[in-house]
Amino acid sequence: MTGELSASAVDRIGRFAGSASAVALLTGWALAEAIFLPVVPDVGLGLLVLAAPSRAVRLFGAVAIGAIAGTLVLAAIALQSPDAARAMLLGIPGIHPGVLAGVDLVLARDGVLGFAQFGPGAPLKVYRVEWLAHGGDMAGLLAGAVLNRVTRIGPPLIAAVAIGHFAGPRLRRHSGATNAAYAAFWLLVYAAYFGGLFSVDAPWAA
Questions:
Q1: Alpha carbon of residue 159 to chain centroid
Q2: What angle do CA 183, 125, 189 make, to 5 degrees?
Q3: What is the 3-state secondary structure (H, E, C) of the chain?
Q4: Average pLDDT over residues 169-193
């Protein structure tokens, strides 16, 4: 009975992944994260793709659209008042003056390519604000935002698609353990992030 209930939970996640509600959820989540939310939409995206790997492109598209929309909103704030935008960033858990300074160094060194992020690092919202604060243009901002989403979300998303495709039946048979392991992974990631482990000048963030 327990196994059946666990399997049905994964199936429900998979069915939800194919719905318009899932697209709306990820779009809104990505938009909010682009401005003020400290938790990335990757958390929801990965879980949905594990359960429904065939929906990966559509769901990633929702995240990308939300991220671009959020980029435009944050850009409007930053262009009107860079100091207000920075103050808003510094009120978000995990962001402090050292993070802003580190992002400044990366962008000064690499330009738009500095937005690339192959792994954990400073939130994209910091790159957006600092890019504009130091005279960056909107074309570079949008290109950098897309580059960041592709490089940071792309590799884990491909891994989730592969796992969901090849190990789907096993994930469903051990749904409880799968969900627990997934939750534990993200709890560890955020414990490390809020603890300052993912510095912006780390090799994977530079």
A1: 15
A2: 20
A3: CHHHHHHHHHHHHHHHHCCHHHHHHHHHHHHHHHHCCCCCCHHHHHHHHHHCHHHHHHHHHHHHHHHHHHHHHHHHHHHHCHHHHHHHHHCCCCCCHHHHHHHHHHHHHHHHHHHCCCCCCCCHHHHHHHHHHCCCCHHHHHHHHHHHHHHHHHHHHHHHHHHHHHCHHHHHHCHHHHHHHHHHHHHHHHHHHHCCCCCCCCCCCC
A4: 92
Confidence at residue 195, expressed as pLDDT on a 0 to 100 scale: 86
Q: Is the pLDDT of residue 11 over 90?
A: no
pLDDT in tens, 111-164: 999 999 998 889 999 999 999 999 999 999 999 999 999 999 999 999 999 999
CA dist 131 → 92, 147, 151, 162 (Å): 18, 14, 18, 35
Length of the chain: 206
Q: Amino acid identity of 133?
A: A
Q: Is the pTM of this model over 0.85?
A: yes
Q: Which residues contact 154 (CB under 8 A, 6 or more apart)?
A: none
Q: Which amino acid does the sequence have at 103?
A: V
**Mean pLDDT in residue range 15-20:** 96
In one-letter notation, the amino acid at residue 134 is: H
